[in-house]
């Protein structure tokens, strides 16, 4: 199955470079390009896309707002934010807007291709530790006070699921969570799946963001 990719970046040279890398892959095809968010939204109305590589700093409509609009559509493509800086407020805002992860623009081609495949298969591609660093830095921007009471879905989690959610938000992998809770990795994976389903979340990135927003985990990673 071919992964249909869209490139959204105002730098033509960068899009050309990405297109050359992707074109060499037997399982990928660049089906669309856009130089800004407005153009991207127009193209997406008529072109089926699986994964969008989204620049954040663009004229007319930036990547964060474009991502928010894309992700609010029914059955949207996955969005992978491309940023110049590791700890960039745009990357943080992109995750909040619904992106499945972010990558640095100078990422080695192999890592970019692996990220596209991961996002397409439903995984998040931000390392939990990186997500945590982002959230620790930008936690003051989160309206955490009192939000846990508003988010009634959290009440649907079992005590064990809440425990797992806290550890996911602290940046632990399934294997590390399994060791911490003396469970099998398969059991942890099942718990994470149930958390995603009950809370209507797409991936681990959204779990981390929600855990911070609701105050389940505080800045510094402590539940």
From TrEMBL:
Pfam families: GerE, Response_reg. PANTHER family: TRANSCRIPTIONAL REGULATORY PROTEIN NARL-RELATED (PTHR43214:SF24), TWO-COMPONENT RESPONSE REGULATOR (PTHR43214). PROSITE patterns: HTH_LUXR_1, HTH_LUXR_2, RESPONSE_REGULATORY. Keywords: DNA-binding, Phosphoprotein, Transcription, Transcription regulation. The modification 4-aspartylphosphate is found at residue 55. InterPro entries: CheY-like_superfamily, NreC/VraR/RcsB-like_REC, Sig_transdc_resp-reg_C-effctor, Sig_transdc_resp-reg_receiver, Tscrpt_reg_LuxR_C, WalR-like. Residues 150-215 form the HTH luxR-type domain. One of its GO terms (biological process) is regulation of DNA-templated transcription. Gene3D superfamilies: 3.40.50.2300. Residues 4-120 form the Response regulatory domain. The keyword DNA-binding applies. This is Response regulator. CDD domains: LuxR_C_like (cd06170), REC_NarL-like (cd17535). One of its GO terms (molecular function) is DNA binding. The keyword Cell cycle does not apply.
């Amino acid at each position: 199955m071919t992964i249909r990719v869209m490139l959204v970046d105002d730098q033509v040279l960068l899009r050309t470079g990405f297109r050359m890398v992707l074109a060499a892959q037997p399982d990928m095809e660049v089906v669309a390009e856009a130089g800004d968010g407005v153009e991207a939204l127009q193209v997406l109305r008529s072109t089926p896309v699986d994964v969008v590589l989204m620049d954040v700093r663009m004229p007319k409509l930036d990547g964060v707002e474009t991502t928010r609009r894309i992700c609010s559509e029914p059955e949207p493509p996955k969005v992978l934010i491309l940023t110049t800086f590791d700890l960039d407020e745009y990357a943080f805002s992109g995750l909040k807007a619904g992106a499945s992860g972010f990558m640095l623009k100078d990422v080695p081609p192999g890592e970019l291709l692996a990220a596209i495949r991961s996002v397409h298969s439903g995984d998040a591609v931000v390392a939990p530790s990186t997500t945590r660093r982002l959230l620790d830095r930008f936690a003051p921007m989160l309206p955490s006070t009192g939000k846990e009471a508003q988010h009634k879905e959290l009440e649907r989690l079992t005590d064990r699921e809440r425990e797992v959610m806290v550890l996911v938000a602290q940046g632990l992998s399934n294997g590390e969570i399994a060791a911490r809770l003396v469970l099998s990795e398969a059991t942890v994976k099942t718990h994470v799946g149930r958390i995603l389903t009950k809370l209507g979340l797409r991936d681990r990135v959204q779990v981390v963001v929600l855990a911070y927003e609701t105050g389940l985990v505080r800045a510094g990673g402590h539940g």
